[in-house]
Design goal:
Radius of gyration: 23 Å
Protein name: ABC-type nitrate/sulfonate/bicarbonate transport system permease component
Helix content: over 70%
Pfam family, one: BPD_transp_1
Shape: globular
Subcellular location: Cell membrane
CATH class: Mainly Alpha
InterPro entries: MetI-like, MetI-like_sf
Largest sheet: none
Keywords: Cell membrane, Membrane, Transmembrane, Transmembrane helix, Transport
Length: 513
């Protein structure tokens, strides 16, 4: 079979892109490569300066967010009783809708890069927290028992046993965090910054400048892909080897009642932090509503029934597209990871495209996808699926690669084929990473659907928050934030319950403290 040179393949792809863009020009969705190149040539200096601003903001958020995520994971392992509270606070912080968070942070920080750095950090802290937490627990119970038999304490176990086992998971988390930090920085610029790629995106969207929109989106994707590849190369350079067979007895002594009590306590802590932060900074009640204000607005006020009806109707619209997109993204990511395991040569083609799709800022992709597929459910579902597909793919690929070598050799000794090895060894090894990605996808799905509603569809709770923010109806705005947080916690709890039931059978070491 004759293999075509790579240059010829890329030239053919660009030519096909150019022809397709010209044929569909009336649809106002795809810009031709020649139009994008012309924009870049005319605005090279502007793009260079904007890239420097956004890149510096993203780097700061990447560092601070990942440090926070690692510290939270270490605290959760050292203080197991604090895990649920830490997880709840991290989840709620990550689920704060951008349409509400951006303006609030801009008011709190005022001029400067504070909101952009904060959003970039919030975009990565939760995913890194979960990735590292899974890694810290991916330790054979026999290793822990051996270390304890020599009188080693929790800190020594953490430093000598758990941390080395967590390094591959940390690399996976950092790879996911790199595009997320860049996205967070650009979204922060979307809320009122003066410079950066996010500002250029806003101008392009408002001016219906399709070549500019594509140019900025592709530039952001290229930078994110470079960061993703660099972190992966560093992980390979360190030769991070997975541990051998992971065997441990399940440790699930808390039971449903204990988990429920801890969940209620975590919500109570979150409410206390909300109230305490508002009071500590002495923020005016007109703008910064407290939990009691939300309760009054939704429960005890004379018009509370109408308020609840409006809010729940908008939430229902959002969930009807968020949940299908969530499931589609998870299944697509896990299925493609399994396919790439069976056919490794495809990875060279699929992974760059997957990274590019995830790296393009959602504030640019959401309007384009909705314009292409319409303002109905299909467009929003696709936005959500694209948003969570890439982290799921990356996590599942790492999980599949951590299949225990002795078990793989055992299957090979019986001449088991690739499908049998996949089903019997690799998929069970992938499950912890899959469920970690499923938990990470909960806030990502909320981010995607509310952004699509805000920028493109004009429906659902995202559009509601945009409307009430513009009319200074802060009671409804904070009520919407609270309802979204509760919906995220409920979904996360459901995924965690399913995870515990499955891992109790397949990977009990993940349940061991």
């Amino acid at each position: 079979m004759i293999r075509m040179p790579r240059v010829v393949v890329w030239a053919a792809l660009l030519l096909g892109w150019e022809v397709f863009a010209r044929l569909t020009a009336d649809g106002f969705v795809i810009a031709a490569p020649t139009e994008i190149a012309q924009y870049v040539w005319r605005n090279t200096g502007l793009l260079w300066r904007a890239t420097g601003v956004t890149g510096w903001v993203a780097l700061q958020g990447f560092v601070w967010g990942n440090l926070a995520g690692v510290m939270l994971a270490l605290a959760a392992v050292l203080i197991p009783r604090a895990e649920r509270g830490l997880l709840t606070l991290a989840l709620l912080a990550f689920c704060l809708p951008l349409v509400a968070t951006g303006p609030i942070l801009r008011v709190l920080y005022g001029p400067g890069q504070g909101p952009q750095v904060t959003l970039a950090a919030l975009s990565v802290v939760y995913t890194t927290f979960l990735s590292v937490l899974v890694g810290l627990r991916a330790v054979p119970q026999s290793w822990l028992d051996l270390a304890r038999s020599y009188g080693r304490g929790p800190v020594t176990l953490l430093a000598l046993v758990r941390l080395p086992a967590a390094l591959p998971y940390l690399v996976a988390g950092l790879q996911i965090a790199a595009p997320a930090a860049f996205l967070g920085a650009m979204v922060g610029e979307f809320t009122g910054a003066e410079r950066g790629l996010g500002v250029l995106t806003v101008r392009a969207l408002r001016g219906l400048d399709l070549p500019a929109t594509w140019a900025v989106a592709l530039l952001a994707a290229a930078l994110s892909m470079a960061a993703f590849a660099g972190i992966g190369a560093l992980g390979r350079r360190l030769s991070l080897a997975p541990p051998e067979i992971l065997l441990a007895a399940p440790d699930d002594a808390r039971g449903r009642a204990g988990a429920s009590i801890q969940g209620i306590a975590a919500v109570a802590v979150a409410l206390a932090v909300w109230q305490g932060a508002m009071d500590a900074f002495d923020l005016p009640r007109f703008f910064a509503r407290r939990p009691g204000d939300v309760w009054d607005y939704l429960v005890t006020a004379p018009e509370a029934g109408a308020h609840r009806a409006n809010l729940l109707a908008a939430l229902g619209e959002t969930l009807t597209v968020a949940l299908p997109g969530y499931g589609a993204g998870l299944l697509l990511g896990a299925g493609l990871a399994a396919l790439l395991t069976l056919a490794p040569p495809l990875a060279a083609l699929v992974l760059p495209v997957s990274v590019a799709l995830r790296s393009i800022p959602i504030i640019a992709t959401a309007p384009l996808i909705v314009w292409a597929l319409g303002r109905g459910a299909a467009g929003s579902i696709t936005v959500v699926a694209v948003m969570i597909f890439f982290p799921t793919l990356v996590a599942c690929l790492h999980g599949l690669a951590r299949a225990p070598r002795p078990l793989m050799d055992l299957f090979d000794s019986y001449d088991a084929g690739p499908l049998r090895r996949l089903w019997g060894v690799q998929l069970p090894a992938m499950l912890p990473a899959f469920f970690a990605s499923a938990r990470m996808a909960v806030p990502a799905a909320i981010l995607a659907v509310t952004t699509a509603e805000w920028l493109a569809t004009g429906r659902g709770i995202g559009a509601l928050m945009a409307t009430v923010a513009s009319t200074s109806d802060y009671a409804m705005l904070w009520s919407a934030i609270a309802v979204i947080g509760l919906a995220a916690l409920a979904t996360h709890a459901g995924v965690a319950a399913l995870e515990r039931a499955v891992l109790r059978r397949t990977s009990p070491e993940q349940l061991a403290g």
